[in-house]
């Protein structure tokens, strides 16, 4: 089996790490290094460019890869796919007025779910959905514009999340060709949201998607 990250075209590779600063520069360096390893080319043959809206894409030998980058204070994450547009987001778990924020911004079913949880679980639950929404917006290439905050994402099938989280992304209620999931990392101190846009690709059913998540 090929040991390179994401060598299987049906695999979405997500790499994350904690940092002590300079997250933007480190995320860019990790993206270039990982893309070069995935393609088995020298790092000098891959470079980062940006669309007018700011979304990163790879030039040179990396032109066929779909990528996404996210960073927050103390952590960063990248996603790479050889097949589908992808999005990734990372957030630190912290105290939030989660129920009120959910009612203000999220789909009513999501707000009801957050509000029905014990108060101590609500900040994590809010970020579980928030990171997916951010990732979905990136995968679709339009951020949170046009109702992205209220666009429903899959509610967890298990809560609180267990020690062995599912790595199978699930379809959004709408559009159905977008899949997403969230996972806790760093001992539960951060949440990473991931999304991919299958965009009608043949053979891209839910069961065909594999997610590889690794700390680097």
Automatic annotation (TrEMBL):
One of its GO terms (molecular function) is magnesium ion binding. Signal peptide: none annotated. One of its GO terms (cellular component) is cytosol. Keywords: Transferase. One of its GO terms (biological process) is lysine biosynthetic process via aminoadipic acid. Transmembrane segments: none annotated. Residues 85-146 form the 4'-phosphopantetheinyl transferase domain. Gene3D superfamilies: 4'-phosphopantetheinyl transferase domain. InterPro entries: 4-PPantetheinyl_Trfase_dom, 4-PPantetheinyl_Trfase_dom_sf, P-Pant_transferase_sf. Belongs to the P-Pant transferase superfamily. Gsp/Sfp/HetI/AcpT family. This is 4'-phosphopantetheinyl transferase domain-containing protein. It comes from Streptomyces parvulus. The lineage of its organism: Bacteria, Bacillati, Actinomycetota, Actinomycetes, Kitasatosporales.
